[in-house]
From TrEMBL:
Residues 50-406 form the Endonuclease/exonuclease/phosphatase domain. Pfam families: Exo_endo_phos. This is Endonuclease/exonuclease/phosphatase family protein. Coiled coil: none annotated. InterPro entries: Endo/exonu/phosph_ase_sf, Endo/exonuclease/phosphatase, TAT_signal.
Amino acid sequence: MHRRSRSSLLLSALAVGTAAALSVGALPAAAAPAQGGISKPRSTELRVATYNLSLNRATEGQLVADLTSGTNAQAKAVAEVIQRADADVILLNEFDYVEGGVAADLFRDNYLEVSQNGAAPVEYPYAFTAPSNTGIQSGFDLDNDGVTAGDPDDAFGFGLFPGQYGMAVLSKFPIDTDDVRTFQNFLWKDMPGALLPDDPATAAPNDWFTPEELAVVRLSSKSHWDVPIQVGRSSVHVLASHPTPPTFDGAEDRNGTRNHDEIRFWADYISPFKSRYIVDDAGKRGGIGLTEPFVILGDQNADPVDGDSTADAIDQLLGHPRLIDPKPTSAGAPEAAVLQGGANLTHLGDPKYDTADFTDNAPGNLRADYVLPSKVLLKVQGAGVFWVTQSDPLARLMPYNVTSDHRLVWVDLTVPGWTGWIS
């Protein structure tokens, strides 16, 4: 396998968020996971992954300091997870945005390209980072608590400073810089039939926000990105986002309704007859074409059965006629559900699909992270969740205080026009 030489390419939106331990039933026998990791079939053309690696920090500049050292324990642990998965394209959620892509460069140089606990280093010559709505103050009292000065709940997206909980896309394949689209500034009110929150203390509907607030409130709590990746002769669009958790609010359910509509954005974007209202940050209107291959990925903060999201939030994608749900599973998640108990024992969903190890009493473990390819021009070879059982040597990477409360999710795809790595 030929690895491309390191490129300085880094985009900014300003210029244009045990062997049985990984159960992957859809994989052919030759692709069964190796002990302590994920075996990548030689026939794999494109492995796409999403990972909420919880590498956000509480203070601005701290992530750069941690990544500069090369010795931060959490960064080393999440880097090892990424190395063992060896995805060709990966979305990182909860990775603080730093202008100029400084954090992404440091993470690649000091952690991903350095072996962690014997795992093979992985190189991503291409990266995309862009500003996030998190921590950008709106100037309004969006949570109606009477406080606006520095309140993270009054930012366009919850955050203590601009860029906290941001995103990054890393790729082994070139990014089509001319066609990247971002939707950071799209207003929530401009979505037809938006599920705007309602003030339960008044008779008027959908009136939690004042008209003045609606004139500035953005839909995306971080951002929505369309990042085309050039894979051979094909351009595969990575549709990346991280909707707000549907909790931490009141009876108005402003976070639950926003989560629903952040997910709906992609459902409309891939539906030509519904996408005309969408306008990107450069002023271009509309969504993605019917013949363009794409993958929707990210921490969607919505489980199809359990949890606090609105009843149909993630079903907008899982039931979409243009999408495939590979239903990645693991053996570690069902084991954890039994051992941890609590809310997990009352869940209606099958725990083998869980991707997030949340608080046991509420909401319990959930399926929150998704890699959903288009049916057009893409074929699923296999899928899995990196959640190992306690008997696996890599169980040391599972605790939330070691890596993250989320697990890496990956899908292997066949891509038209791909002729293989140059040897």
